[in-house]
């Protein structure tokens, strides 16, 4: 997943299980308070494996 260059607030929903295979996910976030907009990922099943995550500051 890479939403680089976009605005924060995107949601990736996995309607089953998620297996991380050492991939990289880049999320946009406004670096402010607890209620600042950010991208997020919802997994409705089980998770396993490893994934790396990075954040991109969205102005």
UniProtKB/TrEMBL annotation:
<protein>
    <submittedName>
        <fullName>Autotransporter outer membrane beta-barrel domain-containing protein</fullName>
    </submittedName>
</protein>
<dbReference type="InterPro" id="IPR043990">
    <property type="entry name" value="AC_1"/>
</dbReference>
<dbReference type="Pfam" id="PF18883">
    <property type="entry name" value="AC_1"/>
</dbReference>
<feature type="compositionally biased region" description="Polar residues">
    <location>
        <begin position="12"/>
        <end position="53"/>
    </location>
</feature>
<feature type="domain" description="Autochaperone">
    <location>
        <begin position="10"/>
        <end position="54"/>
    </location>
</feature>
<dbReference type="InterPro" id="IPR006315">
    <property type="entry name" value="OM_autotransptr_brl_dom"/>
</dbReference>
<feature type="region of interest" description="Disordered">
    <location>
        <begin position="1"/>
        <end position="59"/>
    </location>
</feature>
<dbReference type="GO" id="GO:0019867">
    <property type="term" value="C:outer membrane"/>
</dbReference>
<dbReference type="InterPro" id="IPR012332">
    <property type="entry name" value="Autotransporter_pectin_lyase_C"/>
</dbReference>
<dbReference type="InterPro" id="IPR011050">
    <property type="entry name" value="Pectin_lyase_fold/virulence"/>
</dbReference>
């Amino acid at each position: 997943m890479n939403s680089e260059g976009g605005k924060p607030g995107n949601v990736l929903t996995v309607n089953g299980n998620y297996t991380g295979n050492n991939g990289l996910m880049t999320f946009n976030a406004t670096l402010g308070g607890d209620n600042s907009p950010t991208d997020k990922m919802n997994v409705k099943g089980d998770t396993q494996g490893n994934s790396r995550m990075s954040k991109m500051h969205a102005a």
